[in-house]
Each structure stands twice: as C-alpha cells, then as structure tokens.
Amino acid sequence: MINLKYIILASLLSSPTFAAYEFKVVSRPVGTTALTFMKNANVDEKYYNQLIDYAQLEKMAPLSTAALANVQPDDLRSLTIEEFNQLYARLSAGPMPLGDYSGYILQKPPVFNAIKKRILKQASLFPGFTSAMQVFTSTLGRSPEDALFEFVWKGKRFFPKDNLDQIETRTSFNLVSAGASKFTPDWISNKIPAGLGKSFIWAADKTSFLGLPMHVYCGISQVDTRRESIITDGSYGDDFSSYLKYTDEIVTRKGLNITEEYRMVRPGLYIGKAYSNKLFLFNVALEISGDTPSNQTVGSCFDGKTTR
Amino acid sequence: MRLKIAIGFALVSAAAFVTTSCLSPGKVRTPTSAEYSDQQVQTLLQDEFSKDGYDHSLKRDFGGGKISDDQAVQELAGRTIWFKSAPNERHHTYIFPQKVGVGIDWNQAMDADLHDQRFQTWGLINDPDCCTPGVNCEQKNMRYKGRAVTKVDTYGWDYCRGDEDLLASLMNKTPYRDPACDDPIIKAADGLDSKVRENRCELAFGTSTGAVGYRKYPNPKFNAARWAKVGGYKGYSEQMIKEGINISIQPPFRVAMACASCHAAFDPLNPPKDLNNPSWANIKGETGNQYLNVSKLMANGMKGSAIETQLFTHVRPGVVDTSAVPHDFINNPGTMNAIINFPVRPTFNENVVRWFQVDSCNLSDLINCQKVAYKNEAGQVAGYKFWHREQRQMQVPHILKGGEDSVGFDLAVQRVYVNIGMCSEQCWSNHLTNLRDIDSTSRSYGESPFNIAQCREQCASFRANEDRVGNIFSYLASRRPTDLKNGLQSVQYQGTDQPVVPQSPNKALVDAKFKEFLEGRYGAGSLERGRQIFANNCAQCHSSQNNNSKENLSANENNFANVNFFATKTLDTGEVIRADWLGNDKSTPVAEVGTYKCRALHTNHKLGQVWQDFSSSTYKNLPSTTEDSFEKPVTGGPGYYRNISLLNVWAHAPFMHNNGIGPEICGNVEPKHQVLTTSVEGRQLSGTKYKCDLNYDPSVMGRLKLYELSMDELLTPENARRKKIVRIDEAIKFPLGFNDMYLEFPPGIPLNTIANFDLKAFLYDFTYAASYLDSNNQATFDQFWAKKFADNPAKAKELGAAVQTIVNYFKDVNGVLSFIRQGKAQSIESLKVIAKYYRTCDAKDEVENAGHNFKTDLSAADKNSLKAFMATF
Lengths: 308, 873
Known about the structure:
Strand order of the largest sheet of chain B: 3-4-5
Largest sheet of chain B: 3 strands, antiparallel
Mean pLDDT of chain B: 85
Distance between the termini of chain A: 30 Å
Largest sheet of chain A: 8 strands, antiparallel, barrel
Shape of chain B: globular
Radius of gyration of chain B: 27 Å
Number of helices of chain A: 8
Helix content of chain A: 10-25%
Strand order of the largest sheet of chain A: 4-5-6-8-9-10-11-12
Distance between the termini of chain B: 45 Å
Low-confidence stretches of chain A: 1-18
Strand content of chain A: 25-35%
Number of strands of chain B: 22
Number of helices of chain B: 30
Strand content of chain B: 5-15%
Order of helices and strands of chain A: EEEHHHEHHHEEHEEEHEEE
Oligomer: heterodimer
Shape of chain A: globular
Largest interface: A-B, 69 and 68 residues
C-alpha cells in the first residue's frame, strides 16, 4: 500500500502552462467499513479531464479484499457516481454468477429523468406494453416509469450452462418483494393482455416470473477496459429457444438494446451498470439470494494480463 | 551468452534513436550466443537468403565488404517483426466491437472465394505463404494432416504456413503456441547480447489471414456449434451488417494488423505479372501501399447509414485517418508514405521530455522513476529495468505529417503499435473518446493522455516490442529507394510498358540511357532545365542538403543553384546512397503550403490529448499560425506541415498528404465494391455510376503515368483545377440514444461539414448555457457566449441566438422529436450557425486538392522539364 496523501498527475514537465492537477486520497465510511477514493485537490470535478485515471487510482489507492468483505448493497447508495466508478474500476469480474440474485438500482445520472421518459416512449411502441404497465401501476400505485425501472431490475436468475458463452440470465420479477403478491399466475393470465402475461415463465414457488433472456459472457467494460467485466447482453436474446417475442423483444436490439456489466465486490455481491444502446442508465447491484454456490466458474474473464 | 557488441543497429535504448548518425558498420565480433552458435547463425542466414523469392535487398554487399552477420540477423528480425508481429487481435476482433458496438467484417476480405478480388477491392496483397484450398494448395505442397486441405478445414479462408497448429488449437481448445516463441531469426537476434528482454511470444505472430500483414489467431471463445448455427462466416457477416454484431457469438479467428498491413506494397520496380499471385520478390515492406482501402475495411461491418461508416470510409486509396479511433473530431487522413533512406533523414535538436532507460533511479520519485519487471516465457521475472523521465535536448526526426512523433524513433514505433491496437485494454482504450457518450463528467467523453509508464509496466507486448524496436530500426534503416532508372531495361527505355527486373542499384543515378529515355519523353535538355527550376523554386523545402532556411536569404538569393542533388554519401558499411533526402522535414505553416489544412490541425499530440507524450516540447511551443472558429489562435503544435521527401516521387503519386492532387484511382471492380472517394466537378458522385480516373496499375509505366498526371494537376493553378470534395453517399442516421430518434444528415453534403464538427465541445457548451435558460437567467446566458469571443459581440449574439433556438426545441421530448423529424427551417438555420462555429477545421470550400500553388505559371516545356528531373528522384 502506497501511503501518499498527495500525488501529482504525471507527464506535466513539458509545459508550465498546463494545469497540473493534484489528487488526494480520501477515506470515507461506506456502511461498516471505510473505502478510499481519490479526489481532485484543485478543482471540483465537473469535467471528464479533471478525474483521476483509473490506473493511477489503482496504483495509489488499491482496495483490499478485507475492506470489501462486509459491504452491503444499501451501503453503496451513499456513493457519488464518481465514487462508484472508482470502486468499480478497482474490482475484478469474479466468477460467473449462478442462481438467484436480488437487484438494486443505485445511482442515476443527472439526465436520468429525461432518459426515463424517452425510454418509456419507446417501450410504449411494444404491443400491450402500455396497458400492461397500467395494470401494474394502478395496483402498485406507482408511475409507469417507476414500474419499468424499479420493477424490472428487482432481480436476476443465472442459469448454469456447460459452455461459458451460452450462459443465460433472465430477469426475475419477484412479485412479493415488489409488494405485488396479489399478482399470481392466474391473476396475471386473466388481467394482462393476451400474448403478454400468458407467456411468462414462473419460478417454482409462483412468486416470481422469469423473462427478458440475456446472454452472459466475459466482455469489455464501457467504464474501464483494463480488466473484463461480466456482461449481460439482451441484444440477441432471441438466440434462446425460450425467447418470447412479445415480452422479451423489449431488451433486444429491436427494442431498448439493454446491456449490463458487473464486477464482484465480494462473493455473492456484484455491482455494475445498465445501458440502453450503450447510453448509461444507472448503477446497479446484484446480491445473491441464498448461499453462494460452490460451482461458480472462476477465472474465465481477462484479468488485465496478456497471456499467449 | 553472446558478448554485448558495439554495433550501432543493436542499440535498443532510447538514446540510440536520437540520431540516424548512429548507423555504423557491423564490426567483427566473436559471438557466443546461448541460442545459436556462429555456425548456426550463418546457416540460418543462408537458409533465409536462399528462400524462394525472398527480399534479396536485405542480403547486401557494398563492394567494401558485406554487412556483418549480426547486422543481417537484426535486419531480418526487424523485417520479421514488421511483417508478422501484430499483438492487437483482441482490439480488432473483440474490444473494438464491444466498445464501439460495431464489428469489422473481416470475411469480406479474407474469404478464400474472394482471393482474386482482394487486391482490386481492398488493395490487399495476397500472401505468397498461403494457398487457396481446392485451387493451388497441392501445387504449393501445403497439406493439412497429410491430406488435401479444404475450405471446411479453414472456415472458408486461405490456408497459410503454420495453420495446421493453429487449427488444431482451435478445434481441440488447447493452448496456442505462438510462432513468435520459436522463430529462429528472433531467437538469433535475441541472442546477440545479454540484455534482459520480455518474452518474445508476446510479439504475437499468429499466421497469415491470406493478406500480407494481416494476421490471425485462434479465438479461445470460439464455439463450433453456435458458429454452425449462425451459418459460419457468411451468416455471421450478414447478420452483423443487417442487425448489428452479436458479441455472444465469437468467430473462429481473431484478426490483427502488423506494420506491413499498411506499409507493404508491390515493389515499384518489380511488380508481379499476376497481381493476385505475387511472390515475395514482388513485395516490399517499406513502400507504403497506395492502393490500400484500409479505412473501408475497418468499417465494412457497419450499415452505410452509420455515422462511423460515412465518417471513416470516404478516403482515397493509400490514405488512412489514424486519428479516427483515437478520435479528434477532425477528418484528417494521411498517406502511408515510403520509409526509405533513413540514414540521411533530417533530424532536429529539440527539447524533449520522455522516459529514458537508466542504470538506476530514485524509486521514491513515483512520478519520474520506474522499475519494471520483464518476464520470460515461463512467466518468471527475468530481470528488471529502470526508466527515468527527464527533459533533454535530443536530435529527433519529425515522423508524422505535421511534425508530430518527435520524441525519438523508438517511441514513434511504439505509438503506432498502440494506435493499431496493441495493449488496447490495458492502457489505451480508457483514454479514448466515446462518440456516443453525452455526459461531460464521464471519462470517455473526451481523450486523456496515454501513460507510457503504465503501459510498459502492465502490458507485456509493449515491453516485448520495445525490447526489439532496435531490430525494426535496423530493418527500416536498410531500406532504399526504388529509382525509376532501375525499373527500365536499358534497351527498352523508349516507350515501353514492360516492367523489368531492376539492375544494380549502385550505378550512377542518371546514366546516358536513362537520360535518353527521360529527354525522349519530356523534351531535349529537359533534365538540366528541370534541375534549374527545382533548385530555384523547390529545393528550399525539398532538399536536405543546404540547411539555410529561406527566411535567411535575400529575395534574389538562391543557395541551391549549385547543389548537386545527385550527391552520394558513403555509409560506414561501405554502402553508397543518395545524400539528399529531397525534403528538409521542417515545419511550414499550413497557410503557406495552402494544401487541405485539416491534417495540419491534428490535435492528438497536444497537451492533455492522447498522444501528448509523443511530441516534443519544441513542437508544443511552436508559434500559432492560424485561428479557430472562435477567433482564438490555434496553439500547442498544430498548424504546420513538414516538407516531405520527394524520394521516388515517380512511384508514389497521387500527391499531397491526402493523395488529393492527381487522378482518382480505384480497383477494377464493381462500383459497389469501390471506395467512394470524392465528387469531382462536373461528375457528381453516385453510388452506382461513379467511375474513377484510372484503375490500379502498379507496373513501372503505370506508376509513371500516375506521376505524370499528378504533376500536371500539381502544376495547374489551383483555381483552374477541377475541385474534389468528399461527400457522404448515404444519409447518416445518428442515433440520439434510442432507436426511434435520429439526427439525420442527407446524402450529398460535404463530409467534412459533419466530420469536422466538435461535437463534445458543443454539447458541453450547450448543456452549460442551457442551464441558464432553464433558470430564466438570460443575462448570464448572453454573457456565456460573449466570453466565447474576445471582441466580437455580433458573432456572440449570432451563436447565442442559434443555441437558444435549439434549446427551446429541447425543452421536452415532443419538441426534440419535432425538431428532428420536421427539420423546421428555423432549426436548420440555427444548426448551420452552430456548425460554423464548432468547426474543428474550416478548409476553404472543402476542396481537397487545393494549394501548393507554386510555379503553376511555368511554360508547358518547363513543366515537362520539372517532370523529367523529378522522375530521377
């Protein structure tokens, strides 16, 4: 651990006129632990080139496994987007998730409200979407926007597969945790327009239905390319045999083209980002619902080292 | 271990590249290589030099004694790296598609069925080390598992040397041992001294794709079942272009580019009779491929309406915008020029801040001292090197068009490797602009400086290449011009169109027969008259012999009148070469040259930009020569073109950094496969009707004809030249985040009105200023724009009003939609105003073949004389 309070961004010898930013290491509590971040000591970080480079950050303020051992999803809500990014950039992908995970929407960009409206507008182009949302929202007492974003990212189920590039994840719509336990399969089938609700795949206990299939693979992060992230990619969800056009198309390339990327904070907890057409929507976290399974696939993602 | 020996070419340390004067003879030595004995080295060299059709120019004998074995080994190692090393396959086939969201359809070029269209369509050179299954593999004695190879075995591509191992790795999912690990020449070169070097496997040779310089590697993520389901390369490609790339399906091969991918070309003196089936004797690594359509190749996996397709693909053959991926919002493609006669290339004493290898440094100085571990093939630390960052005065060449890459040859080579994707994940991609990122607080909103120290520490390929850049330098320093004289058989000088094998390159540059040929073609006495014209008018920029700048001369003074442009220089090796570089490489203000200015405004080497550490402080402190659209001086280095070398100008037409002056050339293929280049006055571009002036003709006489026609245009007053303007050929639909919303630009508008728009600067100003309007603070809004212009309130008002119009549309979603869909006149006018002020390059009328308006008033006879004299270059 390099214990420096201040460092100066490199490569500034050549010009006395170029702004030489100083970055300071700051430590602050996140839940029951303390995490370090680096802040620009000269200016309020309002522009992209005023931020610390991730490689510099990692060199000057590495994160320890111990510091992350007790982090809880709700602890992360207090982070700014920049702090979240700095945390994310110092993580590795970790093993492929397996099983059921609860989802959390965390930080949203300042332009999120505008984005939300536009997404809703596009989503409304899908058959039955608007009427379906009305049914849900009238029951839940929430706006359609909230229904779409809070409800959809409530959880995921990762299915085990033999081939790593064949891993499938489905959004798990947990009705109980959404406060909508009255939405039983029969109720859904009766209320939701034909072609939509009837096609849902239900979990065994009938409290969750599973939709929106996405590919899961190791891939390139939009935030930090130095190491791979776990990507969930809805663009070609129609590859899967269980794909249902009316319900699932909305996350594909023909719809919102949703992708997400994740890295592991600690076993059982992943954080990441959701995008629509590569436009950042919000930060997310996935926490495993039960015990971490022992058969997770470890080490399949590129860890930043060239190996030939 | 072999003893460390004192040959100039072996110097790998940075300081060795400060001057080309370090070129020195191969001294006699007593090598004791751990890898090879002397006898083995000699046998190795004999084997290399006896290969059928090998580049025999590397086996040199200068009369005074041939080059030493050591030097030969280093040059051969450099050549091998130049043609084969391409540690960027993850970038081109994996990172780029995921980061940008669009793929490269390599199969359009590498499909074996298209072997005989590869040159005419893409300008690619078919690799002599490959065969086409079912066509000529048996004749070439290239078999697969002891039997005839089929296209099923090769996934439809050509079958190349080393593919049996590669395909086995792919099919069996076994680790791939890269051929670089065991390459005998690289091993021999590594054994020349006892220096610590990074694992040579990291050079990453892979095998050929079928096209020279384009390499392939087995994709560890390949899944045969899914590949079959999508329909192999054909189905995969079709889906990619139609619906976008499916990242979850990984093709069998990852494809990468070596230096030769752009720089290797047909030998101007010895082109192949069959353009589709050259031998190595027909290929030179240093010439620069003036027929290559690499930009189109890189964007062929996108829809025509994608902004990247339109922005990046409309460039002439032989030209590429190397700041397209590290995007600078300037459309500024440049030629792949010849790399010849480096020992006489001018260097400049400049102030440089960079990393130097040192014996040790103070590790507590985290900013300026670095200790790096170098690993062997087993992954064990083989040794450490210290690097120290400091300021020095150095003799440096000006490598790029605007004088950039001016911190030493070694870093220039390393930068190019990174620019084509080496270490992309570890140290490059994080510093690039994401075109679609609209959040100015996001790192990918704009560029940030590439960190050499970080890359050296964290990317093994960076170290592996850096450790062997001395070999590359040895190879490039050995490259010589291809003089026209040597392409013309003495008995056939008059009027022949038959290319012939070159004669000895060491005879006098102009002999009687050659003179007879030239004066028969350009007029009696034309050579001497041409020399006078050149000395009086051109040599000030295009000679390296007299270092007096014209600023120091009186109006009537000419200190080139008596210069012998044919003077020779004897190198320490005994080799005699032309002393004149025929260009002084000094930086000239772009307005003075007058050629299309956008390349001169390249910003990537400025402070704060991605390549800031690859330009000297001298460059960064050059005086401003031009203003931007906000009437502020352009500072920090841009604004210049270096005075390029005219060596072998007869073979490298069309002219200028953008190949803009001269005939438009294209392959002899269907129009849909041609590179759409420009609209030319009176002959509007159309996707189906466009035909260029000349089809590719790399024969000696074909190149000479292209040179003559280009000279004709160059010596025509710029106002009398036909005007070439690049236009987009398909409507650009720029998605604004969501599928149903596009900003649409109609076909036919000049490309550069879009490509030279500083989108990110505008977005930032727009959102910043709009926030004032949101809070009903009109006065602050007006002040914001007033500050943009120092002394021009009228312009401030014009721009502010235009932005306000657009802001009003953007207040809600419906407004945005009506703005985009209806294109109301008011909004169009406002956009034009905005476009005017956020131009990154405001070239006069967008005419790409303007400028260099020198001596266009010569008589017809004098113009021919100049042609005659310059044909001897």
